[in-house]
Amino acid sequence: MELAESIDSINKWLKDSYGYGPDGISPAWRVVLAGELLEKRWMTHTDEGWELMCPEIREVRKYQHIDRNKYVLERQVPVVGETDITTPVSYEPAWTFEDRHGIYLPPKWEACRIIIDAIYMQQDKAGFYKKYDDPEATNEARLEKIQHMEEILFGNETPVGDALAHKFGVTDFNQKVDFSKEKTQ
Question: Would you state the pLDDT for residue 54?
């Protein structure tokens, strides 16, 4: 598992750029390894499926649906309503660092910034929170950053490119190409 930059430096940048979450103590955003996270939950059934007479608190793996070796961008949110989570605030996943095929991608602060800014823009449209303003960003600059990040993340994602990357593939040799015409200059 390769890292372009350290998780500590990404998390420091996230804290410095976006501040603290609803609890006022912990950062609003963080990047974590999915396999390392445990959380305390109220459980009403045993692991075997038997109903408990009295619910109990157990530590369980937070992201059972995400590969243990992938990084997750999380956002701290208040816990509202009835839930089995035992804390008043919780970190919830905003993005898993993987491509559209589920293949691992190393976390980068540029990707975090694009994702967070997109979330804040959508919330602003819906009227939730004040939009995070970047005085240096224009629509063209933002579009250029997004296109650059898409190229880095997704690059050549064609069936032929994927086949070459994974060292397998079939091509269509029935296609007729005329090699008799040579370019002359």
Answer: 82
